[in-house]
Structures are given as C-alpha cells and as structure tokens.
TrEMBL record, chains A, B:
Gene3D superfamilies, per database record: Glycogen Phosphorylase B
Keyword Cytoplasm found: no
CC per GO annotation: membrane
Residue ranges crossing the lipid bilayer per the database entry: 501-524
Protein's name in the database: Glucuronosyltransferase
Main subcellular localisation: membrane
Residues in the signal sequence: 1-26
Subcellular localization, as worded in the UniProt entry: Membrane
Single GO term (MF): glucuronosyltransferase activity
Amino acid sequence: KSLSMHSALGVLFLLTVAQAPLGVTAGKILVWPVEFSHWLNIKVIIDELIVRGHSVTVVTHSATPSVKTTESPGYNVEVIQVPYTKQDINDALEKFMKYWTYDLPNDNMIRTSLKIKEIMDMFVEQNHILCRKLFANEGLLEKWRKEQFDVLLTDPMSTCGELLAQKLNLPFIISLRFSFGSSMERLCGQLPTPPSYVPGVSLGYSDHMGFLQRVKNILFQFSQDVLFTLVSVVKWDYLFTEVMDALIQSDLQLCFTIGKADIWLIRSYWDFEYPRPFLPNFKFVGGLHCKPAKPLPKEIEAFVQSSGDDGIVVFSLGSMVKNLTKERANTIASALGQIPQKVLWRYTGEKPDTLTPNTRLYEWIPQNDLLGHPKTKAFITHGGTNGLYEAIYHGVPMVGLPLFADQPDNMNHMRTKGAAVMLDFNKMEAKDLKEALTDVMHNSLYKENIMRLSQIHHDQPMKPLDQAVFWIEYVMRNKGAKHLRVEAHNLTWYQYHCLDVAAFLLSITALVMFIFVKTCSWIFRKCLRRTTTKKKRE
Amino acid sequence: KSLSMHSALGVLFLLTVAQAPLGVTAGKILVWPVEFSHWLNIKVIIDELIVRGHSVTVVTHSATPSVKTTESPGYNVEVIQVPYTKQDINDALEKFMKYWTYDLPNDNMIRTSLKIKEIMDMFVEQNHILCRKLFANEGLLEKWRKEQFDVLLTDPMSTCGELLAQKLNLPFIISLRFSFGSSMERLCGQLPTPPSYVPGVSLGYSDHMGFLQRVKNILFQFSQDVLFTLVSVVKWDYLFTEVMDALIQSDLQLCFTIGKADIWLIRSYWDFEYPRPFLPNFKFVGGLHCKPAKPLPKEIEAFVQSSGDDGIVVFSLGSMVKNLTKERANTIASALGQIPQKVLWRYTGEKPDTLTPNTRLYEWIPQNDLLGHPKTKAFITHGGTNGLYEAIYHGVPMVGLPLFADQPDNMNHMRTKGAAVMLDFNKMEAKDLKEALTDVMHNSLYKENIMRLSQIHHDQPMKPLDQAVFWIEYVMRNKGAKHLRVEAHNLTWYQYHCLDVAAFLLSITALVMFIFVKTCSWIFRKCLRRTTTKKKRE
C-alpha cells in the first residue's frame, strides 16, 4: 500500500514537473501602466506574475487616480513627481465624458473636432510632462539599469513606456485593446488590415460591409493614418530624439520605437472580434481578468434570491460615470420599474424620483460574481471591454447604453453577433429600455448567441491569462521574441506596398509599347513611301 | 497512510480530469490522405486520435503505396478500386524524380515545362479516376452518410477530400505544408501574402529581398495564381459541378470548396518559416511527428559507440530515393571517407566502390532516434520537411543535398537561418561535401543556430501534435469553426482589393476636377468676352 502511494505521489510529482513552464526562473518586470479600466486589466497580469514568483515594479506618478502607491500592494512602485494632481486628472476626465455623452451628439463637426483636439492636447500635455520628468531623473534610470530588469510591459495609450524600454535596452511587450482606426497596429506593428473586410474601430461597422461602408472605411483608415502620423511627428518626435540622443534612425520615431515590441498582447479574441489577419507576435488575450463567480455578500444574495423565478438584471455604466442628468436617471429608473426582475444598479448619483422597490442602488457591486450568478437574466452596460468580457465569460445577454470612446463600437460587435440590443443613451425613452430588456430576456436567440460566444471564449488551447503570462515569461527567458517579428518593419512604405516594383513594371511595359509603336509606325511609313515612290514611277 | 494515499490519488484524478479536453466524447473521423511522406505525417495524427478513443476511417485506393489496408492497423479502411497499380504509381514517381534530379538542371525551360506538365497531367489523371470511382459508388456514400462522421481530415495535394466533405455535409480540416506559390492558401484560404516580404515557396528567397527579387516574387505569385486558376477551371470545375449537381454557386468551384475548410493545419512553425501574416483558422503544427529518441537497436548502437569522441553523421535522402548514379554515389562515398566521424547512410542502391569502413549502408535507419543520439554531430539530408523537423527538434546542424519539389526551398530556410550548408547535388565534388561537413561540425555557429531553432520549436504554449488534435476535436464538438473564417471568402476579387472603391473615388475626383476646370474656363471666357466687348465699345 505504501508502495502504491509512493508511486502515486511519484506520478503526481512528475505531472507537476511536466506542467511547470520551460525553464522559468523568477524574473524582474518593469510595468508602464495606464489608469482606470486599463489599470484594472493589467493589474490582473501583475498579480499572476507575482504569484509565479516574479518581482514587479510599477512606474506611476504622483497624480495617479488608480495605482495604489501607499500600502504594500505586492509590487514595487516608483512614483514620478508631476506638477498636476489626481483632482486635475479626474476633473479633466469628467469634463471629457460629460462633453462626449451629452453635448457631442448635438454639436457640429468642427466644434466637435476642436473640442476633442483641446481635450486630447491636454492629455498629451500631461503625458509629456510625465515623460520629461521621468527621463530627467538620471538617478532613477541609473538605479533601474543596475537592477537589470528582464522585460518591460507597457500600455501604449500612455506614451514613453516603449521609449523607456529602449533607453534601458530591454525587450518589451505591449498591452493593447486597439488604437483608433488601428493606425498604431497597422503603421507601427505592421498588422495588415484589409479595408474591404476589417472595419475601422469606432465606425460601428461589422466585417460585412456594403459598398458605401467600404468607401467610408478606406477614407477613415487613411485619415486616421494621416492624423496618427501628424501627432507622432508634431508631438513626440523631438522628445524621442532628445531622449535617445538622436540615436533612432527613422523619420517616425514614435512608430519606429513601438514597432520594436517583441509581443503585442491584444485584449480581445474571436468571441468578440470579427476574424481578420494577424501576425505571429500578436497574441489575443481578451477576457484575461474573468474568473468564476464567488459567493455574493449576504445582503446582496438575499436581494437576489428575493427575485424568485424572474431573476435579476445587473446594471452598471462603469467606474468612470458617477452622475447622470436628473432627467436621464428618472427615465432609466421608470423603465426599470416596469419589469418584474429585481435590478442591482451601480450608481452613486442622487436617487431618482421614479425609482421603484424592485431596483436598488449600490455604490459598488461585485459585478463578476453577479454576472456569474444563476439568477442573472440580463446586463445593462456602457460597453466597456472589461464588463463586456465578463458578460461573455458568464453568458449573459446585454442591453448596451454606450457613452464614449470604444463603447459604441464594442456594443456594435455584440449587437451584430446577436447577443445584445443597443440603445441611444441620450434619445431613448423609458419604453425603449423596457422593451430592450424584455427582448433580450424573452427572445431566446440572445441567450443562445451569447452562450455560443461564451463557448468560443472558454474553448481555447490556453486560458487568456495563462497565455499572456506565457508570452511575458517567454520574452524573459529568451531575451526577446525577434523570430516572430515580420521583415515588413525594415521596409519603407513604398517598398511594403510594392509601389517601386509597380512603377518599374509599368515603365518597362510603357517602354516596350513605345518601342513597338515606334517600330510599327516606322515600318508603316517605309512601306508607304515605297508604295508612293512606285506609284509615282508608274 | 491509506487516507493520504487516497487523497493523493484524488488529486491525481482531479489533475487528470482537469487536463481532459473540454467535453470531448469519442467521435468519428473520415480521412482523405496523400501517399508517402504526407501519409507518414497524417498517420501520427490518426494514431493520436485513436489513442484518444476516436474512430478513424481512412479512404484509400487499391494502388496505394503507403496506406496499410490488409492487417488491422487500428483504423478502418475503405479501399476504392482503381484501374492502375501500385507499380504504376511507383514507376511514375521514380521517373519524375529521376527527371527532376538529373535531367531538369540541364534542360531548357520549354522542354522542362512540357515535361513537368506531362508528369503533372498524369498525376491529375490518376486523381481524377480515383475521384470519379469514389463518387460513382453511391452505396459507399450512402453508408458513410448513415455512419454520421463528425469531421473530415483532408490533404488537398490530392483533390476530392474537400468535395467529399461537401457531399456528406461535413465540416472539414485541411492538412497542408504549402502549395506552389501559396496560391491555394491565398486564393482559396484568403491568406494575405504581401509579396514585399513573403517569398514565394520554391524561389529560394528569404523574407529579406532585394529590389529585383521582389520584382521576381510578384511576377511569380501572379503567374502561379494564373496557373492555379487555369488548372482548377480546366481540370476540376466540371467534375465538381457534376458531383454537386451544380449546387456550388461560384466560378472557381475547386477553390470555393477548399475555402470552406474550418481549420487549416499548416505543417510548419516559426522555427522554420519566416514570420508572416496569417488568419485565425490557420494553425501551425510543424514537427508534430517528432518525439524523444528511443534506444537504438544493439548493432547500430555498437557502431555509433565505436565512433568515440568524433561522433557520427546521419545520412538519408528520404524514403523516395532508392538509387543514385554510380558516379554520384562514388563521389559521396569518397567524401564520407575523408572525415573522422562514423557515417550511417540509408541507401539501398549498389555499394559504391569508394566506400570506406567508417561508412555503413542501411536499408532503413531509425532516423529520429539517431538524430536524438548524443553522439550525432551532423545530418546529411535531402531537405524533406519531416526529416528537417526532426533535425530541428533534436538540434542537429545539416548539410542539404536537395533534390526536387520543396526540398531546395526548405534547405534554403535552414541556410538563411544559419543552421545548414546547402550543396548542388549534381555539381558538387567530393571535396565540397567534405568541406561542408567539416564546416557544420566545427564552426560552432551552426550548432548555436540550430539549437536556437530547437528552443523556438520546444517553447510553445502547446505541442504541435496536441494542437492539431485540439483543433480537430474542436471542430468535432462545435460542428465547425466558422467564427474563425474571414469575411473575405464572401467578397469578389475586385471587392477584396478595393478596386471598385478605388474606381469610384477616382471617378469622383475626376468629375470634381472636370467641373472645376470647366467652371474656371467658363468664368474666364465670360470675363474675357466682357473685357473684349468693353474694349470694342471703347
């Protein structure tokens, strides 16, 4: 018996050894994060890296609204002092969101563009200050050089992580959901995005586009590329040149530097995305933060159970939206009062007058645990990627009230895949919301479709978080992943698109035709002359 | 103690359950294989499927040189009776190889093209006969319909597997190393192959091409596409129309049918390939047949051990080449006599006169076990994909003597990655081979490079065979993988390349310019007339 136990344990040991990743030793990772939901997502990766014994250092700044810098959070923190405050960032963001949610839909294009430019300029300005402060701190850079990190993980929505990696001579990994018009992926990552079936993010198209949609898609891609290039050149190039002492041999320094990334961890997957081409160093890890539901707090569980067979509706517009206008809040509350389900609404604004007893307001809800609860029938969401992936993970059909940024586009993906109804937040009336909710809960197609997406999500060779960590550790143990980087990075744009070859072939063809025509006409004239001479003689 | 054993076994059980793939039950797989090395490769997948409890039925024909049909090999066999024999196939192949190896390098282009066309026509003719015999057998089709297979696995180098899948209404999976010029992947699979950095297979270029190479690459891609389309239309379309009762709504029926594949299992990986774009339903499973070395037979092990510190060289030109010309065999044998290593040469031809005692001839060698032996210093190979992957797996530098088909291109990959020296089989002299061998064994760069490729091969999230089986089982349990198929399949070629959009935008631009010029000239004339009138009046 003892022997058989011994051998059983032996097998167990062998199994464990066999499962341990290839030659991983504890490493050192430097992280350049972005705030808010981006931070929540990258935090999951950081936590997993710590669990696996790695040492993680997060670079943040004194005004960070998201990164915990005081308590000991398991990772090391380096705080760059900046001359703006957390309040400045929050205020700017709130202003931005209010404008986008309420005023933008009624504004004309020029005013919208100017307003967006103004806000963007402010974000870039903050980014700039942070970047300068960082590279001015020679002592810190020297300390990091001595610490010998293995890899840098950066979210390129905040510029300079990639530059830091270059400055410290580290391989680096990008964490990205998308860039507007996919310009960063296309121009810097060399990702092919055939405009005939890869819709530009934010256009709200699916991969099945009509003629006019394809026209608009191409023009959109083109204009975004121009815009991205302009911003890179005007806003960033001189800073990059300064920091790298003009060592970068390229016209587009931002793009050139981003293009050196070893791995791109894209925060989506084919449950969410329309199928499209990608490259060997693009890895899709959408939903890496999702996990099985934990039991709910007692009070919430009691409320959920009180819903009986009707079940519950989970409602959140994300961590960024704190207030709605009184009118919007009342419209929503009165709609929620007309359904038999119990509703859990994450909302910190003033209690709407029309609120009915079936709806409870919460400052915070355990969203993932609620979405994984068997009584949950639907999810009202703003369409942020994190929440949307939790709905996919647990298979909950959605009603989308997208507000800004990628949210309308995200919800459109779910709508075209038949897993959600989408409403116009500003124009919807109470009956629209009520009808949408009734629809997604009673028309079984929505449930079937979201369950199909859920099945796609769960049925992968490797879980998203494991895959993200695998490739980070891969870069650590192999000091990069250059064998996955396409040669396109070393071509100019006209070489990449074969324009030089086309020009050459056209020239040859033209030359051949020219010689042919000239020869023919010469022969023709010769013959003609002879005939004329003959006739004359006759 | 019993308790702890119990719990240990419990954990073991849990581990086993946790590792079991998601919801897989025993399924039924129909296989449409190709002969020779293709069969060896697909056989590994079949064996693994059988181990996992699936039932496999292989469709073959009465003249098969590779598939065992008599003994019980673990899989079911359906033999289609054809009017040609195994001898016919072997003879044709030998003729083909002899021509390619010895005569082709000295032949002019027109004769070569005609000869290759003649041989190809013969293979297509055999394929045709097999296909017709299959679809004429209504009883067999009816039997298969009743048997309700879950998936069909086909090697498209032999046409009709994809048609059989359509006829039986089955999801299907393609196993492919490449098609010439990648036309099948590009035209039927919608794989983007940017000609600026994806070299056409058989050109012998790397991903880093000069201007003239890019010109040739584009012309090659284009000509291969034209050829592939012609062959499809002339040779196959009417048969496809006939079999499917004209149900296929497309001009290019072969391509249209192949394009319906759920998954493409590509028999390579980034250890071998230059990085390039791919699609969500393309999975790279190169080297799936490789496994750790087993102990050698006693006699061979003794010979290997007798090599002392010098080690051994493994030499095989593959299973297809049985004879060399006397002159070539003598050249090779005399070169082998000049190195201190012991050589194991798989060769069934006449014993060369110049053979020395350090070289032994074998009718068959345990190639994988030899390549995995610690005493192995180098591998002389024709550059077939299977052997090449075994060398990558075990990290053995190579001397390539490529003969035909994809072999020169394969070896070129290894050469550009610094893991092999390549020789011209027909022109090399004894000293060339001797020098090449000395070089790969003594210049440590070759060993370092092949070890780097080996590291890339082994350091994947999932082993190639497991990945192949995962996606086959995926298609079985999900009845397809349509969510991985790009929308490009539903676009015409001019839509795909946005030519309609380009024409539209150019027309608009032209129209605007026309109106602008006309307006300007009208205004100009008006002004001019007025001035003239004025002047006249004056």
